[in-house]
Amino acid sequence: MSETMYLIAAIAFGGLITLGLRALPFAMLAKLRKSKLVKSLGEWMPAGIILILAVVVLVGEFQVRGSNWWMVLVATAVTVAVHLTCRRRVLLSVAAGTACYVLLVNFF
Amino acid sequence: MTEKAPVKQEVRSGITDSLSVGIAIFPLGIALGILVVQAGLPLWVAPALSIGIFAGSVELLLVSMLASTVPLVTIAVTVFALNFRHVFYAFSFPLNQVRKGLPRAYSVYALIDEAYVTYSLMNRASLTSARILTGQLMMQAYWVGGGLIGITIASALDEPIHGFEFALAATFIVMTLDAIRSKRELPSAILAGLSVSVALVLYPANAMLAALLIFAVLLATRYAIAAARTRTGDHA
């Protein structure tokens, strides 16, 4: 298999699997739409899933930085502080936290 | 459904929705483009990944796997494990608001974390097909566009700038803060915090998937307890 064919096959495989994981649950849940359990789970899940995403991504970043773990901590604190003090403007908070992190990572 | 609202206004709302996550998607796209160049892969791989797969974290991981030509089976298993979380998104994503046919198919294909996070917490009544689709199309535009810019930057820079990936973490932190503002969301947040802590200790290699499975089990238990209480008339 040539390199080009390999790359195309790999991306096609990855795409089909991802699409399947996104589409099949909708097809299966369509029959269960009236179920109270499914309705409750639908209401309860988003806030928790976002928290899980945040924690897992942050932990990954801590691992990447190793002994410089404090950089992640500082950038996280900046993000939270800006968000809570500057009237919860998402763009501003994310930009401030990321800028802080980029500066720390590249200049320390 | 409020399909009567002018489409122009809905498109504008969709663009506004996309901006708050776009600030994370765009730099990550740049990071992807830079990685593709540094891994020595052909440049077309960056847009091909962003259109063919369109799942941020998996694409970043695949770059190094593709560069070392790992077997296709390994790629398939990795993508399956990393993207399995999307199975849970069907519970809450407002897909019913999106027009049937091609628009709905696109909405499912483009159901990235950021799209789920943006639209699952909004009031369904205020969501129209045009708004959701615009938001998702914009998110993909940031991602593909970022990748193309990343390729350009990497070809010009001798040493890349690190740390842009924090934008993803920052977005999720901010969205968590906003999601758990109301007391109603607190039980879910506590159960999720518990799940992710247990998962990180017991299954560090697959923490994301483990945390989501534990969380789903805990929520089902919560439902069972609530249902039992209602049956016995105990209004605790």
UniProtKB/TrEMBL annotation, chain A:
The chain crosses the membrane at residues 6-29, 41-62, 68-85, 90-107. Signal peptide: none annotated. It comes from the Bacteria. Keywords: Membrane, Transmembrane, Transmembrane helix. This is AzlD domain-containing protein. It comes from Leucobacter denitrificans.
UniProtKB/TrEMBL annotation, chain B:
InterPro entries: Brnchd-chn_aa_trnsp_permease. One of its GO terms (cellular component) is plasma membrane. The keyword Transmembrane helix applies. GO terms for biological process: L-valine transmembrane transport. Its main location: membrane. It is found in: Cell membrane. Keywords: Cell membrane, Membrane, Transmembrane, Transmembrane helix, Transport. It is a multi-pass membrane protein. The chain crosses the membrane at residues 21-41, 61-82, 141-157, 209-228. Coiled coil: none annotated. Belongs to the AzlC family. This is AzlC family ABC transporter permease. It comes from Leucobacter denitrificans.
